[in-house]
From TrEMBL:
Top-rank taxon, per record: Bacteria
Protein name: Aldehyde dehydrogenase family protein
Residue ranges annotated for the Aldehyde dehydrogenase domain, each copy included: 15-484
SUPFAM superfamilies: ALDH-like
The keyword Oxidoreductase is assigned to this record: yes
Pfam families in the record: Aldedh
Sorted UniProt keywords: Oxidoreductase
Coiled coil spans: none
Length: 488
């Protein structure tokens, strides 16, 4: 690991021995130990936040060109050690080798490059002049104004386990580009990649204290990173339940929040849909991160006239997928992150059976694998809107199917959810699909695709989150807007 000290925290620019020793990071595919992660004490988390606060003033005043150059160099350094990084990411997250390379490390590099450019984006916007009559506030005059985006301060970035490169890079890079400093608290299951990212940033020339990384196997480290008096904002990706607890603490301290939480994406398959396209899109729930992704189209709403056809096609699709060791090129579906999570997903499938759902694919643990935390791609039919498997985020390779009779019912069913992250509409009539998309209470809607535009705003309605990031929207998320007014 270039430039870093394995098993140590990164605080104030120094690799620091953890007060709490270490815990094991487990490969979900083999159940073997990948490495040891440091166990920070609450005092060390506060020390990291203090270092970030001390570094904020000088860093926030650096020239944007300097911040851009550092982020670009960091991308170069990550690229230099690309294969080694991808191997660690694969081992600790359980992602397939191709996903670890392309969607994890590759996207991480792309995000550092994007926000190197982002550091150079204008932060000032002119406001139209206003003519004021004479009055208690002073003489008549024409008043000019400028809206200026300023860095927020110290930002705690708490990241998810499903992508240990893209998710942290998507927080750290725009935060640094705007002149903030960060305390990064990775998910406990796969933190080793984030220490590699910190090492690359340090080698690229990030000053001491600008980036700090602290880890722990329990809740205490994250709690300290949120409640520290030096922290001005919390950026969190994870479950809605944890997000709600973080929001309560942030509310007491009036800390800014960016929350990317759970999802139960509705995939509306209309009567005129291209079923092959819909099946390929919905099928990514089975294969992409083994369904451990908040944007997955897990809740399929299909016109009753196409229901049998769609279920047959999805069943055939699921049955063709190769479940196995993510190091094998033939593998499409790797493990879920842990034994506890595998048990949780399996419990939901069993609950679906008890609720009256019909298991038409999967539903049993893959029998050919004697080690690893594997879940077979599972499809549940005969589902009704009140079932918990339809309402709860399962976060695994499980898809539920609910029929509808017309567009009005489809929209009502889609919106009948606590979540609202990304929904999807498949229809041969694009104008019809767009009309329906505008009625969906979701932060994003894919029309005939599960693809993403990486400059488009990303975030959720309802319990799927607060705020928007990605593209220039991330630069806005990690900034405060200041008004400067003057007489003409």
């Amino acid at each position: 690991m270039s430039g870093s000290s394995p098993g140590r925290l990164f605080i104030g620019g120094a690799w620091t021995e953890p007060d709490g020793g270490h815990y094991e990071v487990i490969d979900p595919a083999t159940e073997e130990v990948v490495g040891l992660a440091p166990e920070a004490s609450r005092a060390q988390v506060y020390e990291a936040a203090g270092a970030a606060a001390e570094a904020f003033g000088p860093w926030s005043r650096t020239r944007p060109e300097e911040r851009a150059a550092i982020l670009d160099r960091a991308a170069d350094l990550v690229q230099r050690d690309f294969l080694a990084h991808a191997e660690v990411a694969r081992a600790e997250s359980g992602a397939t080798a191709s996903t670890a390379r392309g969607m994890q490390v590759g996207v991480g590099i792309a995000r550092f490059r994007r926000y190197a450019k982002g550091a150079l984006e204008p932060v000032e916007e002119a406001v139209a002049p206003q003519i004021n009559e004479a009055g208690p506030m002073g003489r008549a005059g024409v008043f000019g104004a400028l809206a200026v985006r300023q860095p927020v301060g110290v930002i705690t970035c708490i990241t998810s386990y499903n992508n240990p490169w893209a998710n942290p890079a998507g927080k750290i890079a725009p935060a640094l580009a705007m002149g903030n400093t960060v305390v990064v608290k990775p998910a406990p299951q796969d933190p080793l990649s984030v220490y590699r990212m910190a090492a690359a940033l340090a080698e690229a020339g990030v000053p001491p204290g600008v980036v700090n990384v602290v880890t722990g196997s329990g809740a205490e480290v994250g709690e300290a990173a949120v409640d520290s008096g030096d922290v001005d904002m919390v950026s969190f990706t994870g479950s809605t339940a944890v997000g709600q607890r973080i929001a309560e603490v942030c509310g007491r301290g009036m800390k800014r929040q960016l929350m990317e939480l759970g999802g139960k994406g509705a995939a509306l398959v209309l009567d005129d849909a291209d079923l092959a396209s819909a099946v390929a899109g919905i099928g990514t729930t089975f294969s992409f991160y083994s369904g451990q992704i908040c944007t997955a189209p897990t809740r399929v709403l299909v016109h009753r006239s196409r229901q049998d056809e769609l279920i047959a096609a999805l069943t055939a699709y699921a049955d063709r997928l190769t479940v196995g060791d993510p190091r094998d090129r033939a593998t499409v579906v790797g493990p879920v992150i842990s034994a506890a999570h595998r048990d949780r997903v399996e419990a939901y499938v069993e609950l679906g059976r008890k609720e009256g759902a019909r298991v038409v694919a999967g539903g049993v643990r893959p029998g050919h694998l004697d080690r690893g935390f594997y879940v077979a791609p599972t499809l549940l039919a005969d589902c009704t809107p009140d079932m918990r498997v339809v309402r709860d985020e399962i976060f695994g390779p499980v898809v539920v199917v609910v029929p509808f009779d017309d567009d009005e019912e489809a929209v009502a069913l889609a919106n009948d959810s606590d979540y609202g992250l990304i929904d999807y509409v498949w229809s041969g009539d694009v104008a019809r699909a767009f009309r329906i998309a505008r009625r969906l209470r979701a932060g994003g809607v894919g029309v005939n695709t599960v693809g993403r535009n990486m400059e488009a705003p990303f975030g959720g309605f309802k319990k799927s989150g607060v705020g928007r990031d990605v593209g220039s929207y991330a630069l806005h998320a990690y900034s405060e807007t200041q008004a400067i007014v003057w007489p003409g």
